[in-house]
Design goal:
The chain has 149 residues and is an alpha/beta fold. The protein contains five helices and five strands, in the order E-H-H-E-H-E-H-E-E-H. It starts with a strand and ends with a helix. The relative contact order is 0.21.
C-alpha cells in the first residue's frame, strides 16, 4: 500500500496565524506543513500538502489521490458544513480518511456541528489545535501499516 498521504486544507486556512488567532492560534499553515513533513519523515510517509479556497481544487486532489495515495488527512474548513461534492469525492477514495479541525467545532455555532465529511471519515480530530494534524498522520501511518501486515 502506498505511504503517500494527501493533507488537504480548505478555505481560509491560508490565513492561519492571522485570522482569529483566539480560535485558531498563532501558527501558520507553513508551520503546520513543516511539522507534518518532519513527522512524516519519521513515520516513513510521503506527503502532498495542499490548501485551496476553491472547492473544485480539493475535489481534483481527492480524485488524484485515488490513484496514488494510501490515505487522506483533510481539514475541509467551511466546506465541512456545505460540501456534498467533497463528500461524494471522498466516497470514491478507498483508503483511510481522517478529518481534522483545529477548533472544537462542537463548542461553536450550531451550523458547525454538522459535517458532511464525517459521513465518510474513518476518524475525526477536533479541538486539539494544529497538533491534530500530527495525530492524524500517526493514525494513518498505523492504518497503512496494519493493512500491509
Amino acid at each position: 500500500m502506498s505511504r503517500l498521504v494527501y493533507v488537504l486544507n480548505g478555505p481560509n486556512l491560508n490565513l492561519l496565524g492571522k485570522r482569529q488567532p483566539h480560535i485558531y492560534g498563532h501558527e501558520t499553515l507553513a508551520d503546520v506543513e513543516r511539522d507534518c513533513l518532519a513527522l512524516a519523515a519519521e513515520l516513513g510517509l510521503q506527503l502532498r500538502f495542499h490548501q485551496s479556497n476553491r472547492e473544485y481544487e480539493i475535489i481534483d486532489w481527492i480524485h488524484e489521490a485515488r490513484e496514488t495515495a494510501g490515505a487522506i488527512v483533510i481539514n475541509p474548513a467551511a466546506f465541512t458544513h456545505t460540501s456534498v461534492a467533497i463528500l461524494d469525492a471522498l466516497n470514491t477514495f478507498d483508503a483511510p480518511v481522517i478529518e481534522v479541525h483545529i477548533s472544537n467545532v462542537h463548542k461553536r455555532e450550531e451550523f458547525r456541528h454538522r459535517s458532511f465529511v464525517s459521513l465518510r471519515a474513518d476518524g475525526v480530530i477536533a479541538g486539539l489545535g494544529t497538533q491534530g494534524y500530527q495525530l492524524a498522520l500517526r493514525r494513518v501511518a498505523r492504518l497503512i501499516d496494519e493493512k500491509v501486515a
